[in-house]
Amino acid sequence: MSNKAKLLASAQKNLQKGQVAKAIRDFQKIVEIDPKDIRSRQKLAELYSRAHQLDNALEEYEAVARYYSENGFYLKAIAVYKQMQKLDESQVKIYHRLAELNEKQGLIGNALAEYRSLVAHYEQHQMAAEAISVLQKMKELEPENLNVLVKYAESCACSGMRDKAREEFQEVLQRLLEKDDYGKILNLCNMFLPFFPEDPEILLHKGDALIRTGQPEAGIALLKQLLANDSEAEQALRCLAHGYRVVADYDSERLTFQRLLDRNGDDLDLRQALIQACLDGRDYERALDELEEWKDAFFESDRIRVLKACYETLREELPQNERVIKTLHAIYEISGDGDKLFDLMSSNNEPASASDDGLVEDLETLDDDLLTDVVGDLESIEDSVPEESLREGPVEGDEPVPAVEENEPPSSELPADEVPLEFLEEVAGSDSGEPEPDLVSSSVVAGDAAAVMDEEPGREEASAVEVEVELELELEFDDESPVSETADDSDSVSADAVVDTATTVAAESESTRTEIVATSEQDLEAVAEEVVELEEVEEVEEVEDIEDIEDIEEVEDIEDIEDIEDIEDIEDIEEPAAETVVDIPARLEEAGFYMQQGLFAEAERVCREILDFDAVCVEARDLLAEIAVRQGKTAPASTRPEEPVAESLPDEDESAFDWDDAFRRTQYEGAADMLPEDAESHYNLGIAYKEMGLLEDAIKEFDLAMNHPVRRLDSLSLKALCLVETGDFDAAEEAFRLALAYPGICPDERLNLTFEIGQLKERAGMAEEALECFLKVAESDHFYREVGVRIKQLRARLGIAENDLTGNVGTAGNRKKVTYL
Amino acid sequence: MSYLEQFGLEREPFSNAPDARFYYDTEQHSQALLRLMYAIDSNKGLAVLIGGVGTGKTTLARRMLENLPEEKYESSLLVMVHSGITQEWILTRIAMQLGVEAPAMDRLTLLKQLYDRLLDIEESGRRAVVLIDEAQMLESRELMEEFRGLLNLEIPGKKLLNIIFFGLPEVEDCLRLDEPLAQRVAVKYHLKSMPVETTEAYIKHRLRVAKAPRMLFDADTVPAIHRYAGGVPRLINTICDNCLFEAYLRKLPRVNAQVLNSVVGDLGLLQRPVVEPPPRSEADDLAEIESMLDSLEQK
């Protein structure tokens, strides 16, 4: 026996006796004899660690880790460095080495985690430059990680590197804008405003984000504040207009667009938006004026569909308006809408010949060359313009537009500089304090109404529309006499009174009501300056009531439909039950298939159907649990005892930037499309950790590895074994059962997992359950891992008699029946 | 100390003596049993089970006999031990086995007695079944004709006697001695040697029945045993039994490759052409059916 072998034997003996110091001396000698004996060095390091000789342990570990690293065994090196990190968490160089090695191994998430720890360390010790340097590395490592970018920018800002911080902020902002992630934009702006409190860009984006994240009033207020400093800020005006649209304050929206148009009158997008605001605000005459003035330009820019839609709206609202009919006629001629043209002509009792005249006349309203072009391009336009463009078209890139003063006449009649920002103040009265939109809108409408009344005296068409509407209502609610009266009486209403009435009503009604009031008002004001009766108010209220009733009926209808659908759903589900045959294995297989395809919802549905039929189906339950885990709904309680993943993953507030979670998010986001080689790396690292006794780290790695099917089953099994070693039997069993539920598992694997569960149960002191598992294994293979012995022992311990096969007699009973010839 | 004690066994696991406790229900054995029972229960008259040496025909015959309860079947197993048997002798033995108490020496009287007995059995709601093991020994035309005569004992629409032959492939030659009898074969099934997976399960089953506390064969020895035995159960038993004894002599806890090589050398199986039996496939079954149809056409 060589000297080394003797020393090894001696060390072994000493260890068995618990004499660590002597064993250390033996290993020291072994290492002296053979310094390249890495296993002995590692053993020596472990013994130093056991003897609390940390410096010595670290020194030996370092040598081992260096050896592994230099020879390309990065995973083993990582495991050793990890062990060192556990021994002394304050050693910065270990974090660096771990990050580098993880990076070399392609384990980006792990590398980021190490860097993150470094950043925390540097921050704790107020070493800002070092922290920024590490963050720079993190950014290079994973440039798409927004959390890292934000942290980097924030650190730069904190360190006074304002330009760099601003630059990084801009980068993050652009990324978020590309994703339309306004929740995060809002958080970003809030985070950086303390550093750049007057920055108009940040304020602008915050205002816009507020509007888009359900806080339009606050957004509008902020944008007004911004415009107070720079009334020409076009982007702010556009955002403000959008804000007004969101709160359905179309008059303010129109005024804001008008303000923008004052400076850029040829912008047809803005013009279109303004017209839309007029239409939505029921200011049809103004809309018509705008359209008539700009229709040639609209034709020229291939906006015939927009024009058609606008004029059709106007046709409904102002059915007798000749300008509308005339232009619509021309549009239909050009667009080839023969049916509509015919309808238009017949509804206006036009003689057939009038068509030709009308056409000639209409065509005169447009440039001939222009028409030719338009007709030529018509089909492609018709196909390419989506329906939504009618509403959203006006604002480029979905960017809305700003507002202007209410009581002003159309601002086109005013020089731009005559439109002060007072309108901001006025509107702010409603916006800042939690708005009473009814009041605000109605007062605006009233103001406009007065103005319009002066401008345009004749509006017979409007009253006709109302009569028509009310007649319809009358048909539906015959006993609602006030309604019909209203129609008759409407002619005798003065505009002034309407203002009062409308205001009064508005104070009591909801925003939808206000719109109705506005409609009524417009119709009425065109009639005359006569006395207003109180019935007017009642009438309006009645109309509203009827609409409410209709709404309710509609809702009920919808609910009915939903009920029917529900019933149908139930019937669908109950169908298999009615047949009383559910092929559970086939259904499980189906669920497994869905799982493999990542169709978790379908898989879940199938599992639930199985459970409906067989409430105790363990496989279905296991699959459901697995679905939950893979969807990230709940992490297994024991998976990360020190890191409640489910809690820290920002599911609850997706818009939050969570630096603490940055690296984990990286890992988990990557998991969905993890490459097989990454899964392999995590799996192997898990094994290395497990061998080093770093069970928690091993579990983390197995958790990651199992996100790819290539190592899912193995990872689950090994994770379970780690959990067994940590004494977390429940979690271990859960992992084993998840593995058992894995689709397509082969019989040998099933046997192995069942046996492992049996061992686990035995270790947890649950002898009967262990016996049950072992018996299940023995059914398939009585000698699998000597399960027969385990069964015998357990039976003896539980006092259960063995099954005796002697009852299965031979041919003795039939012996007389056997004859030899 | 016997090898039973050394290995913690309660009985010999690999004895070749018939013992229903060791019956291992392989897929093909259960398929065979299913078909033969079908032949009986539907009064098909004649069925044949063919298999090579040691493939489990006798075991199956005895298993079948076990499966025929007295309240439903009047059954009997005749094991042919020599080929010089006469028509009268076999007729008398069958009559006695089916319950004819004093068989007449006269052949015609004996047939009448047998017919009456068969009618009694029929009236009691039971079926008469005669199983003939080692049927390849019935190598005379007269004997075949006698069986044809027995199969002709019937009442309108129903045969009174069912006969099942268990034998080596040569039994088909015997059947051809009487063409009309060959045509009366309603069900025929061929037993093949076992595949390696079944061999492993078979060995484990027998060990388990013998109450072995653990697997007594190294994992690599099982495929080798299968190869040397050609998947034939009887040879598997012989090899395994000898291996256990050899391991016992060598005081080994289990059978390893060295022990196995030694045993197969002693048994002279090393020189035997080791051919992996081809896995049974659907194509095999079809070929078998086709060959059967061909032979019927020739007749």
UniProtKB/TrEMBL annotation, chain B:
GO molecular function of the protein, one example? Answer: ATP hydrolysis activity
Coiled coil start-end? none
Q: Which SUPFAM superfamilies match?
A: P-loop containing nucleoside triphosphate hydrolases (SSF52540)
The ORC1/DEAH AAA+ ATPase domain covers 42-175
Q: Which PANTHER family match?
A: GENERAL SECRETION PATHWAY PROTEIN A-RELATED, PHOSPHORIBULOKINASE _ URIDINE KINASE FAMILY
Designated name of the protein: AAA family ATPase
